[in-house]
Write a structure and sequence with these properties.
Blueprint: H1 3-9, H2 11-23, H3 34-47, E1 52-55, E2 64-69, E3 78-84, E4 105-106, E5 109-111, H4 119-136, E6 142-148, H5 158-164, E7 173-175, E8 180-181, E9 188-190, E10 192-204, E11 210-211, H6 221-230, H7 253-261, H8 266-273, H9 284-293, E12 296-304, E13 314-315, E14 318-327, H10 333-346, E15 353-360, E16 363-364, H11 370-383, E17 387-389, E18 392-395, H12 398-405, E19 409-410, E20 415-416, E21 427-429, H13 430-449
Parallel strand pairs: 3-6, 3-7, 7-19, 8-20, 9-17, 10-18
Antiparallel strand pairs: 1-2, 2-6, 4-5, 5-21, 10-14, 10-15, 10-16, 11-13, 12-14
The structure holds zinc ion.
Domain Peptidase M20 dimerisation: 194-348
Keywords: Hydrolase, Metal-binding, Protease
Organism: Nitrosopumilus adriaticus
């Protein structure tokens, strides 16, 4: 039997294995079912013909499920699947139509926390490898599975795992853990992720909140913080910190062509959010460029004084702001932190305290890498059409893979854009699970051929 045909006939098995995974809660934020789920995933790999073991770093760190199968016909190329077996908390429980870990199927949908993110994506990779093994007795290239258990809490140890098992994990390409499919059933092939720097800035002036009549004498920390914030960015979004963009390089010709071809309906987007215009009045290609490759400085939250009902004449004792900076390739989070610190100091804001929560670099696969056309060809064959995307506007731990393993990473998958991931009633679409599994089969074949 042909490999793609096998995917068609094996769907009941794919669905039941996915349901088994969904029914095992694995909430990393609460350390609920993590060990149990790692064991279960390892068993499903083995059952599907993929030798598997559980790797550990140290106590208190979620185990990593590893799978590896060597190709008999072509052992020179290795493709890695990076996924995660942990899920987001299912709360609020009362908004679910069925229990969150039911794995219930209703028509074309399978419901449950993790149905898509990321157990649904993982099962497409496993079943694609199984289909190759069952129909040809081999895989077209060497395959490695790296399935972590801390993605939903920020992948705190993936870098350490990659460093410790650098040799074991060595590969020539990585298929990322997710990939979106748009409302016209076109998979979006993502070539990168932005980085992130999350900081908290605060100013404390007096020991206590005071009567606001004293604003004649006591400095207001909220005003102070606003003055500091005003120096970080202009009203069009350009970051004013010295050397912030120093290492950033321009888009390549090929990148620009991809950006130009990527569909983006400004009107639909604006209507969705109820907004009239974009930051800096951007439009057309400039709006698209900003989304895939623009650095941002975003105020995520600002707290000070009284914001309850009615009036309260109070002079707050302190003010606090949380800021996320999205970083683009070549920006080193450590350098950017120093630049931010130096900026505040040089502008006379040494009294502004800074706390750093998270720093992660951006990663992007070169759009002219042959891996890109191998994935695109597979996606076009199965889905009829696909869209290339230079970089996701969000952040994921892609940088350590590119940096440590020196392998290009591409995201492609079955995540329907409106599949409610991280929300109540998350579901996976059976038709997309099937297509993605076939697409992964073709990616392995294309990858093995070269
Ligand atoms: Zn997620």
């Amino acid at each position: 039997m042909n490999t793609l045909k096998h995917v068609d006939t094996n769907m009941a098995n794919l669905i039941s294995d996915l349901q088994t995974m969904i029914r095992q809660p694995s909430v990393s934020a609460k350390n609920e079912g993590i060990e149990e789920c790692a064991t279960l995933v390892s068993k499903i790999l083995k059952k599907s013909g993929i030798p598997s073991e559980i790797l550990r770093l140290k106590k208190g760190v979620a185990p990593l499920v590893y799978g590896e199968i060597k190709s008999k016909q072509n052992s020179s190329k290795t493709l890695m699947f990076y996924n995660h077996y942990d899920v987001q908390p299912a709360e609020p429980f009362d908004l679910w139509d069925d229990p969150p870990f039911s794995g219930k199927r209703k028509g074309n949908k399978i419901f449950g926390r993790g149905a898509t993110d990321d157990k649904g994506e993982l099962i497409t990779r496993i079943k694609a490898v199984e289909a190759c093994l069952k129909t040809t007795g081999d895989v077209p290239c060497n395959i490695k599975f790296v399935i972590e258990g801390e993605e939903e809490t920020g992948s705190a140890h993936i870098e350490e795992y990659l460093k410790k098992y650098k040799k074991k994990f060595s590969c020539d390409g990585v298929i990322w853990e997710f990939g979106y499919v748009d409302s016209e059933n076109r998979p979006i092939i993502g070539l990168g992720m932005k980085g992130l720097l999350f900081v908290e800035l605060s100013v404390t002036e007096s020991n206590i909140d005071a009567h606001s009549s004293l604003a004649a004498l006591i400095k207001n920390p909220a005003w102070r913080l606003i003055e500091a914030l005003k120096t970080l960015r202009d009203s069009d979004g350009k970051i004013l910190i010295k050397d912030w963009y120093k290492e950033v390089t321009a888009f390549s010709k090929k990148d620009l062509e991809i950006i130009r071809n990527e569909p983006f309906d400004e009107t639909v987007f604006k209507n969705e959010f109820g907004i009239k215009s974009f930051l800096g009045n951007k439009s057309g290609i400039n709006a698209k460029k900003a989304l895939v490759g623009g650095a941002t400085c975003n105020i995520a939250g600002f707290v000070s004084g009284y914001t309850g009902d009615g009036a309260k004449t109070v002079l707050p004792g302190n003010a606090l702001v949380k800021i996320d900076f999205r970083l683009v390739p070549k920006m080193d989070p450590k350098k950017q932190i120093m630049r931010l610190k130096n900026h505040l100091k040089s502008k006379g804001f040494s009294d502004v305290k800074m706390k750093i929560y998270h720093g992660e670099a951006a990663a992007r696969t070169d759009s002219s890498d042959p891996f890109v056309s191998q994935v695109k060809d597979a996606a076009d064959k199965v889905f009829g059409k696909s869209i290339l995307n230079v970089s996701n506007a969000g952040t994921g731990p892609m940088f350590p893979f590119v940096d440590i393993l020196k392998a290009p990473c591409i995201s492609i998958g079955s995540t329907y854009m409106f599949s409610k991931i991280h929300s109540p009633n998350e579901f996976a679409r059976v038709d997309l699970l099937k297509k993605t599994t076939k697409c992964i089969c073709l990616i392995m074949q294309n990858f093995g051929k070269t």
